Amino acid sequence: MNYLKNKLKTGRVARVSQYLPLPMLEQQENVIDLVVERNKRGLAKHDPFYQMHINRMNKIELLEEMVRFQEERTTRGELSLTMMVRGRILFRALEIHAETDELRLLASSYRRHLEHEIELTLQATSELNN
Prior knowledge:
It is globular and about 50 Å long. The protein has one domain (33-129). It has helices at 2-10, 34-41, 48-55, 59-76, 81-97, 101-129. The chain is mainly α. The mean pLDDT is 78. Helix 3 runs parallel beside helix 5 and helix 4 packs antiparallel against helix 5.
């Protein structure tokens, strides 16, 4: 890329288009299915960026995130795979940091429910892709 910049500055390049990529519409190999890619990379069950976000939260922020998660779930009516994965991460953190047995039990139960839903969703998508 620096080579191209240097050539452009000196004016020695007659046609810049020879160095530019083809338009996206002409490159069909650049179109990917994100669900398939996430499954290949093992990221269908994990969201490292959300995990980092949750790890930085204190107990009160975790509880606020739980309320936000439940509100979003109610608004949407159903959970996407991404929401399920994020919910599993959130409820695992709540389970670890819970100060009461009731919250620990609730978080553990909901996390296991989400793990089950994630497995069912992945099985359904793998059956559709086969």
